[in-house]
Amino acid sequence: MTPWFKTIGVAGAMSACGLALASCGQKPAGQNQTAAAPTAAPADKEYTIGWTIYAGWMPWPYAQQAGIVQKWADKYHVKIKLVQINDYVESLNQYTAGKLDGVTSTNMDALTIPAAGGHDSTVVMIGDYSNGNDGVVLKNASSMAAIKGQTVNLVQNSVSQYLLSRGLESVHLKPADVKVMNTSDADIVAAFGAAATTAVVTWNPQLGEIKKQAGAHEVFNSSKIPGEIEDALVVSTEVLKANPNLGKALAGIWYETMALMTKDDDAGKQARAAMAKLSGTDLPGYEAQLKTTFLYADPKAALAFTTSPDLVSANDKVRKFSFENGLFAQGAKSVDDIGIEFPGGKVLGNPQNVKLRFDPAYVTAAASGQL
Q: Residue 18: its pLDDT value, please?
């Protein structure tokens, strides 16, 4: 078993998070199963999935390069095109505008950008959670408390801002104790090198590059909040309802690629080396990033987490933070304005305005060998 290939047992996944469940409403059985109601889709429709560089998302471009995307697309008679978007937030904006059918996204960003923008979205699978891949780095200071009064460069309104907030909580500080400067993920490495920059929050591979710079000290990272920053593939609910075979093909692509990349043999090493190259690093660099990625390579482990109270609890924290920081749409009056649906029909927020859905149908099919 390679060090980054981690799974969780069902018992572990069902650990106590009852507080969040207390706020969940119950919906009639079956409403969460978007894959259960196929609708005809145009035969020549090509589905475009956007991705950005991140350790947990590199399996997607590799799968395209290796022919795995074509294999599963052919099996389910769909056309799938994967496209790289250089700027992460721009990828979510394009998806929200309908220019992409799906996109790689964290749970929080799927909520605060497409869902808050009225774009009904479904999480096809949670690929991993950040277990140290996101971090707070200070220049010439080695404690989180030293961030007080500093200007912090980060991708504003993203999980970086969430991580910063959780880090501030850990040393009894508040968001008002720092100033945030919006900085694109494409520019943040260079920004840290500027003399005026003293603090940044970002994710790998940018995080790894920043930590190499003189005076850099990581003072807080996502391993302190396990399961809260989830990395997923999100697809338009309307698109999936029109053609559930797209979701099946995407699940097939993902788990075949997972099985290959986690092998401790030459084939697995070659796959990881190719992913490293695609992300702009070498194999040791990429494997270092994988060690801080809790990868759900086994669909059974992914299903256990997707159907556990832990998922509800984590997303309850995220939605509350998002509302309190003004990340919902203009005019939002309550944290409950946007509904988030979980397996079993559980809903956080408004059940009449569900815009983000965790649908276990595709992972269930993968876990049961029915793809």
A: 33
Whole-Å CA distances, 352 to 107, 356, 357: 20, 12, 13
**Dihedral sign (CA 97, 233, 22, 112):** negative
Cα distance between residue 197 and residue 10, in whole Å: 44
CA distance 59 to 12: 26
The residue type at 79: K
- Return the pLDDT at 330: 73
Averages of pLDDT over each 10 residues, the chain, 371 residues: 36 33 34 45 85 96 98 97 95 97 96 95 96 96 97 92 95 96 94 96 93 96 94 97 97 98 96 96 94 95 96 95 86 93 96 97 97 95
Q: What is the DSSP string of 125-154?
A: EEEEEESSSEEEEEES--SGGGGTT-EEEE
At residue 111, the pLDDT reads 96
Q: Where are the alpha helices (DSSP H) in the chain?
A: 10-13, 18-21, 59-65, 68-75, 88-96, 107-110, 159-170, 188-193, 206-211, 237-242, 244-261, 266-278, 283-290, 299-306, 309-324, 361-367
Q: Which domains are seen in the chain, by residue range?
A: 10-131+228-367 (3.40.190.10), 134-224 (3.40.190.10)
How far is it, in rounded angstroms, from Cα 248 to Cα 369? Answer: 12
Reduced to 3 states, what is the DSSP secondary structure of residue 189?
Answer: helix
Helix, strand, or coil here: 293?
strand
Give the position of tokens 């035969």.
Answer: 43
Instruction: Read off the pLDDT of residues 87-140 as tens digits, 9 standing for 90 and up.
Output: 999 999 999 999 999 999 999 999 999 999 999 999 999 999 999 999 999 999
How far is CA 274 from its chain centroid? 22
- Cα–Cα distance measured from residue 193 to residue 213, given in angstroms and rounded to the nearest whole number: 8
d(CA 226, CA 221): 10
Which residue from 313, 303, 310, 318 is spatially nearest to 111, judged by alpha carbons? 318
